[in-house]
Design goal:
heterodimer, A: alpha/beta, Alkaline Phosphatase, subunit A, eleven-stranded mixed sheet, four-stranded antiparallel sheet, globular, B: Lipocalin, 14-stranded antiparallel sheet, 13% helix, elongated, disordered N terminus
């Protein structure tokens, strides 16, 4: 009898549970963005690591990205999309919706300053006070998959499987070989990978990062699609982050094309951007960094070698595009493409620093010894091979960020602004259109929660979570508004001690020397996208207004400016900074005088 | 610091910590130019046994020059400096030769392809047992041999390397050249003796050297298979110890499997097959050649200008007394230069 009662209780409980799930799903379906098929849309985020603002063809790049461009053609391009100036902070905001200084990535783990050690918000990993996008989406009935770079913690409670991903194949480190498990330092010689929550002892056969990540993602979608649930797929490509490891047949598709130099390529990109309507007609290029010469002054060999770096980079982007195409083709094949939202962007500005030299550039150190053994296949003909390390340097990073100023790590627009493509069933704006709304990577959390019909939790581990800082794009994507932000809303950034705030067209920036002035600088981005004209002295009231916003941001997000920064010593290591003026000094550009032919004569005896 | 200095520092200076590391193209350029001079070095190793050394037909920068000095110590039952490899009845025993070959080579562009011009002059000593006036006697000869010129032209493969960027991007992949060699019969010759440094007849060859790149073209990892099929032609020597010596055309296939050990050190397994080339004295035919020689070569690039090679080769199917039997050591020293590199060195020495 007791057994029967117990069974009955179980049945009642099960029935209640089923009813609850059904009710929840129904309510989610009711509040979610549904497509014409009546299903909630799938979501795919394609993240390019250090992919630059102007690299994709759809943003003016000469690099051939037909698959990514096809998404732009079907969807919308955004020209005022902001990230952090660096990697893991952007990722933390993408997946939590919370400001970096609260979510654990107030500074990159690798560069945390002594006064930030042990401070909440500066843990160096995505802390447990925040929830994650995959966690919430999973609870809302989505499959959640990840393939690629994680960079937000390595211990079992911090890996993708612990932070909401049902399936994952993840590089936990910030970078590494594309061919094998080798990492960069003697103390951390091997990269750490997980697959479905288990730490990998070795990599799959025929491993190549971009290919394998795509293979894995396709397999996860294939294996999960039987139950008809929508999926959230985070394809966090390692590409095109250095080292530029690339299959041999992708390396030589642009031989000699970049010998013309960075300034020429920047001008060509800007011209295309103007023709495409991405930037105003009168847009200027940002000033070339003062320590980068005019490429036309270099010898052909230097042009060829430096150009080859960009050839490799272009190959990296094109290879990534190819594999994105494989994913697109697969979705079309299974009939899910039309029901899938694609979100494509780079995680920060393009990389102008030489990571390899920073780690292993000093002979006599153990890292130099390690690099000698594992990372010394650096003859240009070996670039792309396992054990080679090449990055393209600040001159090409500026090209990737055309027409913006500066690059990754810095507060110039080239550090924090990136190209964004959104396509799929929630986009009701004209196909191929361009939007200039002021948007931020942290907006993705509220946007996708709204899309999925999920809501931000009121408590996490019994505590109130930090607030999301983003704003949903759903209305903007539907064409109901131009921007999720009003003219009074502001965005603010801080990383490595550099900081900035933007409200409307105005941006106030403070940066360490030599990249900045260690003074507040004011720019009007509507009129001066390249940030060439500091208006701080002319607009003291605007400075004051923006300073107040910065203070508000810093207080609200508990910003701790670092006591040590990566810029230390830079002013002494670099040449003195003077304005770069094209064609100066004329001595370098004056050509051979050719006298009139009819006035030529031989010397008299 | 002015713009000129900045440009120079950009390509020369060591990196700062963040963002300013630029590859040092001078270093790379220098590495590639090593290849240039190495190839020119090889150009001049036309040795007495007609064994073209490995890596001989790699292209290099147009306008490059090389002067090789090659020492060879050879022994056999034929005159080691005679490319016909004639096992003469007038040679009764072993012949030893110490020969120095000096030369000059230059590469030039012609119709956008590489033209190679080289001149070689052998000199040295030959000693051996010969049959002179019907009696065996020791013979020694010294002096200069027949100078030889070679004209080579690339038909398939990369176009002429007219600039350093061309050189930086050079990979032979599959390259095919044509060559024509002609030796001038003006070397030391004593018609009363069978062993001479000069051959007293015109000779030369046409060939089609092939370089087949196997795998990546990365210094330290380069591998090539190189094959040179060629045909040698000889006019008659109508004063060969008072007889008429004629030689049929001789066919030769040389092959080398080469491999880098390090960026500057490489080795090669060498094999040569000789066929035909039957010689006749006053119409009395000798034996056609059908000989195989095997050996090896080691090469090392000392600096931008100087390279060394050392090698050994010996015939293997030489059991019969009438078979060609020969072996030899070879050491080469070559100095190569190009005006661009020399100019850079002068400027760098001012730093």
């Amino acid at each position: 009898m007791k057994t029967k009662i117990a069974d009955r209780h179980h049945l009642i409980r099960a029935a209640l549970l089923v009813t609850l799930i059904a009710t929840t799903s129904a309510s989610q379906a009711a509040s979610a963005v549904t497509t014409t098929s009546g299903k909630r849309p799938n979501i795919i985020i394609i993240l390019g690591d250090d992919l630059g603002f102007s690299d994709m063809g759809a943003f003016g790049g000469e690099i051939k990205t037909p698959r990514l461009d096809s998404l732009a053609k079907a969807g919308v391009r955004f020209t005022q999309f902001y990230t952090s100036a660096s990697c893991s902070p952007t990722r933390s905001m993408l997946l939590s919706g919370v400001d970096t200084h609260l979510n654990g990535l107030g500074n990159m783990d690798e560069w945390a300053a002594p006064n930030q050690w042990g401070v909440d918000g500066y843990e160096g990993y995505l802390n447990n006070r925040v929830t994650t996008l995959p966690q919430v989406l999973k609870e809302a009935g989505y499959h959640t998959y990840m393939a690629g770079k994680w960079h937000m913690g390595k211990s079992p409670d911090k890996i993708p499987a612990a932070r909401g991903f049902e399936r994952d194949f993840s590089l936990l480190d910030g970078a590494g070989s594309y061919w094998d498990m080798w990492s960069f330092t003697a103390a951390n010689p091997k990269s750490t990978f997980t697959e479905d929550g288990r730490y990998l002892k070795k990599l799959p056969k025929d491993y190549y990062a971009t290919k394998t990540y795509t293979d894995k993602m396709i397999s996860y979608i294939e294996e999960g699609r039987k139950d008809g649930k929508p999926f959230f797929a985070y394809v966090s490509h390692q590409a095109p982050h250095d080292p530029y490891h690339l299959p041999r047949d992708w390396r030589n598709r642009h031989v000699g094309e970049y010998d013309k130099g960075w300034d020429v390529v920047r001008k060509e990109r800007l011209q295309r951007q103007i023709e495409m309507g991405l930037v105003p007609k009168d847009t200027q290029l940002a000033e070339r960094m003062w320590f980068i010469p005019d490429a036309t002054l270099l010898a052909p060999a230097a042009q060829a070698i430096l150009g080859k770096k960009m050839e490799l980079y272009a190959g990296m982007v094109e290879n990534m595009d190819y594999h994105v195409g494989r994913l697109i083709d697969y979705l079309k094949k299974i009939g899910e493409y039309d029901n899938t939202i694609f979100i494509v962007f780079g995680d920060n500005g393009a990389e102008g620093a030489d990571l390899f030299k920073m780690i292993a550039g000093t002979p006599g150190t153990r890292n130099f010894l390690f690099a000698s053994m594992q990372w010394s296949q650096n003859h240009p003909n070996a670039w792309g091979d396992p054990h080679s390390y090449v990055g393209y340097g600040p001159m090409w990073a500026q090209v990737s960020m055309t027409p913006l100023s500066q690059y990754k790590g810095l507060m110039g627009e080239g550090g924090i602004r990136n190209g964004l493509i959104v396509s799929g069933p929630i986009v009701k704006r004209p196909a191929g259109s361009i939007n200039r709304g002021l948007i931020h990577v942290a907006d993705l959390m509220p946007t996708l929660l709204e899309v999925a019909g999920a809501s931000y939790p009121k408590t996490i581990n019994g505590q109130e979570p930090p607030p999301m800082i983003g704003k949903s794009w759903v209305k903007m994507l539907a064409g109901e508004e131009e921007s999720p932000r009003s003219g009074q809303d502001y965005l603010a950034w801080e990383i490595f001690g550099n900081h900035a705030v933007r409200q409307g067209d105005w941006k106030l920036v403070w940066q360490y020397k030599p990249y900045g002035t260690e003074q507040w600088e004011l720019f009007n981005l509507a009129e001066d996208l390249a940030e060439r004209h500091n208006l701080a002295a002319e607009q003291p009231e605007k400075v004051k207004t923006l300073l107040a916003l910065w203070d508000d941001y810093a207080r609200a997000n508990k910003v701790v400016l670092p006591s040590r920064v990566i810029w230390e010593g830079q002013a002494k290591q670099l040449p003195d900074r003077y304005p770069v003026v094209d064609g100066y000094p004329p001595l370098l550009y004056q050509k051979q005088f050719v006298p009139p032919a009819n006035m030529l004569a031989n010397p008299k005896p | 610091m002015n713009s000129i200095q900045r440009a120079a520092d950009f390509v020369k200076t060591k990196p700062s910590q963040h963002g300013e590391e630029i590859h040092v193209p001078f270093t790379v350029r220098s590495r590639y130019l090593l290849v240039t001079t190495a190839a020119l070095v090889m150009l001049c190793q036309m040795s007495a046994p007609a064994q073209v050394p490995p890596r001989f037909y790699w292209q290099s920068l147009s306008g490059g020059n090389a002067v090789p000095v090659i020492f060879q110590s050879l022994s056999g039952n034929a005159n080691p400096v005679d490319p016909a490899h004639f096992v003469s009845p007038y040679i009764s025993g072993s012949v030893d030769a110490n020969v120095l070959v000096a030369g000059y080579a230059k590469m030039l562009p012609l119709f956008d392809r590489t033209l190679t011009l080289a001149v070689l002059e052998p000199m040295g000593r030959i000693s051996g047992d010969a049959i002179v006036k019907g009696a065996a006697a020791s013979q020694n000869t010294t002096g200069f041999g027949d100078p030889m010129i070679e004209v080579g032209y690339n038909l398939i493969g990369p176009k002429a390397l007219k600039s350093i960027p061309d050189l930086l991007r050079y990979e032979p992949k599959f390259s095919l050249n044509v060559i024509v060699d002609v030796a001038f019969p003006i070397g030391e010759y004593d018609s009363s003796q069978p062993l001479n440094l000069g051959q007293n007849r015109w000779y030369g060859r046409v060939g089609a050297p092939i370089v087949w790149q196997l795998g990546p073209w990365v210094p330290g990892r380069r591998t090539t298979l190189e094959v040179l099929p060629s045909a040698w032609f000889f006019t008659d020597n109508n004063d060969y110890v008072s007889h008429n010596l004629s030689t049929d055309p001789m066919f030769q296939v040389e092959s080398h499997l080469t491999r880098d050990f390090t960026e500057h050190f490489w080795g090669s397994a060498d094999c040569t097959w000789l066929a035909g080339g039957k010689s006749s004295i006053d119409g009395a035919s000798g034996k056609s050649l059908n000989n195989v020689g095997i050996g090896f070569t080691l090469g090392y690039q000392i600096n931008d200008n100087i390279s060394l090679t050392a090698g050994y080769m010996a015939t293997v199917n030489d059991n019969s007394p009438t078979d060609l039997k020969m072996d030899g050591f070879r050491i080469s020293f070559t100095y190569g230069w190009h005006k661009i590199i020399e100019g850079q060195k002068r400027l760098k020495s001012e730093d």
